[in-house]
Specification:
By secondary structure, the chain is an alpha/beta fold. It is built from 16 helices and 15 strands. The strands form 6 sheets. Strands 11-12-15-14-13 form a 5-stranded mixed sheet. It has a two-stranded antiparallel ribbon with strand order 1-4. Helix 6 packs parallel to helix 11. The chain is globular and about 80 Å long.
């Protein structure tokens, strides 16, 4: 396995953390002459006009973060240091792969149903190996990522019924208040908690954005009117109108302290406080009314679902660990960075065989990637790494499923004239694990192993 000296030290540190769990300062020494490690990470910010944007944030090198710090102390640190502490805590929970792995075999045609049944018996702190029926591939991490993405896709489908796309400008998902609180539906929600927990545990970004009310429950923060706006903008606007106006002059508005509950698509009125159906909304009690509405819409109306989801997530990763983040930081942790920086990708790529950074085929490769839009880049990255997003630290943080550094690698292979397939070159892996892209008569072949994410370019 190809590892630089600082990477070997990192692995040694992680092993020490497992043995000396409660009195150890986690640090990743980086040699001053190491030019391959960028001194930044991506951070979600506002652009000054209320829109979200991404910027590069300078990153310290070799800084120490004590794992013994409390969550309250870690809250005061920079995001980079919060991530170090969070992952240090998770690594203490991880069961080394040498102690064996849990395995599940599922059909891609019934991936959600079969996964719900089989994942319950797995220890999600151990290595999880996935086998897709009819495919003879050994899981070196790519199949786990594919399995996570397939489950997430199925769980968030409207046909599955447990999530709804929020009624907002941005695409986020909320728990479906119309979904009945029956055991089969709740088991799917528990499964969503297990899958998301495993994804975060293994540093696999997911493509489904949870609405702000779920994120706030994960970190244990109080819901606000702004959070309601992330799940139902029209309702939030009506509540804001009540808050900002003299409602007693409005002869049309007549509200009482009640909410609406749904069960199998039937509505019933629920009092937000005792006797609420007889308490008329006024200027004097409107602040209490809005507070109760926020709690009802953001949590109490879907309480059984939220609790089932968080209960299983907590079994994988204690919810207290999430409390160190604010909402934007936790969203980045769960979803990764949607912007793919080709320059960062290129800087964190290694080469094998006859190729080097100056080779003409390699230069063609990066030239084409620089011309692609984000949608094409995301699809290409998805195929190569199993995820369409990068970690918040960028491409330098790509890892195998065992936590090893997994530098993106481009390797040359011999062109075979006898190959009868114009767009495919067979290797020792199954054909499904290969990718071919036409590059001016050249062909790009992709395969993976434990140490690298490979692109094999024919020569």
């Amino acid at each position: 396995m190809y590892l630089k000296q600082w990477e070997k030290v990192k692995l040694q540190v992680v092993l020490c953390v497992e043995e000396v769990a409660y009195d150890f300062a986690l640090t990743v020494p980086i040699a001053a002459q190491d030019k391959d490690i960028p001194n930044f990470y991506w951070k979600k910010v506002e652009d000054g006009h209320g829109e979200e944007a991404w910027e590069k944030v300078p990153q310290g090198r070799g800084k120490t973060v004590k794992l013994t710090l409390s969550a309250e102390e870690v809250k005061k640190l920079e995001y980079e240091d919060k991530i170090k502490w969070f992952r240090g805590q998770i690594d203490k929970m991880r069961i080394p792969w040498m102690q064996g792995a849990d395995r599940i075999s599922v059909s891609k045609d019934h991936v959600l149903f079969e996964s719900v049944m089989k994942l319950k018996g797995c220890n999600l702190h151990k290595e999880l190996k996935i086998e897709f029926e009819g495919e003879k591939l050994d899981d070196a991490g790519g199949l786990l990522r594919e399995w996570v993405n397939l489950n997430i896709r199925e769980l968030f489908k409207s046909e599955t019924g447990i999530f709804l796309q929020a009624d907002t400008d941005n695409v986020t998902y909320r728990f479906n208040p119309y979904c009945p609180d029956k055991e089969f539906e709740l088991e799917k929600i528990r499964h969503a908690g297990r899958v998301l927990g495993k994804a975060i545990f293994e540093r696999i970004p997911v493509d489904a954005y949870l609405d702000r009310t779920i994120i706030k429950r994960m970190i244990g923060d109080t819901l606000t009117l702004d959070d309601i706006e992330t799940i139902d903008k029209p309702i939030a606007q009506s509540l804001r109108y009540i808050l900002e106006n003299d409602i007693e002059k409005d002869t049309i508005l007549e509200e009482y302290f009640v909410g609406t509950a749904y069960n199998d698509h039937t509505e019933r009125i629920v009092e937000l406080k005792e006797g609420g159906s007889e308490i008329l909304l006024t200027n004097q009690n409107k602040h209490e009314f809005i507070d109760l509405k926020i709690k009802w819409i953001g949590y109490l109306s879907v309480r059984a679902k939220v609790d089932a989801f968080l209960e299983e997530l907590n079994k994988v990763i204690p919810l207290g660990f999430f409390s160190i983040f604010n909402t934007r930081e936790l969203e980045m942790l769960v979803n990764g960075v949607p912007f793919i920086d080709v320059n960062d990708w290129e800087k964190n790529t290694i080469y094998k065989g006859v190729y080097n950074h100056q080779h003409h085929v390699v230069r063609w490769f990066w030239l084409i990637l620089n011309k692609w839009d984000q949608a094409k880049l995301a699809k290409f990255l998805q195929y190569c790494t199993g995820s369409s997003r990068t970690p918040v630290e960028g491409f330098r943080a790509l890892e195998s499923n065992r936590g090893d550094m997994a530098k993106f690698c481009i390797e040359s292979v011999k062109y075979l004239e006898a190959d009868s397939y114009p767009c495919l070159l067979y290797t020792s892996d199954a054909a499904d694990d290969l990718l071919c892209v036409d590059l001016g008569g050249r062909r790009i072949i992709k395969k993976k192993n434990y140490s690298y994410t490979h692109l094999m370019l024919t020569t």
